[in-house]
Amino acid sequence: MNVALAEVFSIKVGTITTATNLGFLLLCLLLSKKNILKDYLLMFSALICFGIVINFFLYDILASFTLNTYFLNVGLFILGTVIAGFGTGQVLAIGVLKFPIEKFCELMATKTVHSFAWYRYGLDIFFVLTSLTLSFLFHFPILIREGTLISLLLLSGIISWSKNLSLNNKKEIESEV
């Protein structure tokens, strides 16, 4: 979705990613009963940095980098998705920094009968459908490819697994003390 929005508005992907996450940050502020200012300032600062890092790597570092082997390209993407999902899950489990989309999913899970993974997968599907809709409405090439589908299938599941893995280990450590 972020790439499609970047195409529509001629804005860099990292900037769109930051804007999308800021929208979820506002939703979290509205949904949460515990609005601790320092937590939201930390999230806000992290989002700004995240967008800058995405733009730097996408437009400066990786712009001239190409892989000629399709399977190596897909394999590296899968590896990157697994690492990103595992890292995100660990950060969520530690509780030092919450990402707005994941915090939104956690807040929704505590307020309803659905799980974190249910909301996270739901958002992923919504983002894919939004990207397709933008492509059709603005006559852009369809930006949904194998990478999007790999992310759709792997990322939310790995985040949920990693988050729960750490929580279980944390509970085991606490029970031993």
Model description:
There is one protein chain. With about 180 residues, the chain is mainly alpha-helical. About 80% of the residues lie in helices and about 0% in strands. The protein is globular and about 50 Å long. It starts with a helix and ends with a helix.
Can you give keywords for this protein?
single chain; 177 residues; mainly alpha; globular
Helical content band: over 70%
Arithmetic mean pLDDT? 86
How many helices does DSSP assign?
A: 7
User: Beta-sheet strand percentage?
Assistant: under 5%
Uncertain residue ranges: 171-177
| Biggest beta-sheet profile | none
The tally of beta strands, per DSSP, is 0
**How would you sum up the global shape?**
globular
From the helix content, strand content and strand pairing, which structural class follows? mainly alpha
Task: State the domain count.
Answer: 1
Order of helices and strands: HHHHHHH
Distance between the termini: 45 Å
Rg estimate, integer Å:
17 Å
What is the structure about, briefly put?
This protein is 80% helix and 0% strand. It has 177 residues and is mostly helical.
Please describe the topology of this protein.
Blueprint: H1 2-9, H2 13-31, H3 37-61, H4 70-94, H5 100-111, H6 116-137, H7 146-176
Helix pairs in contact: 1-2, 1-6, 2-3, 2-5, 4-7, 5-6, 6-7
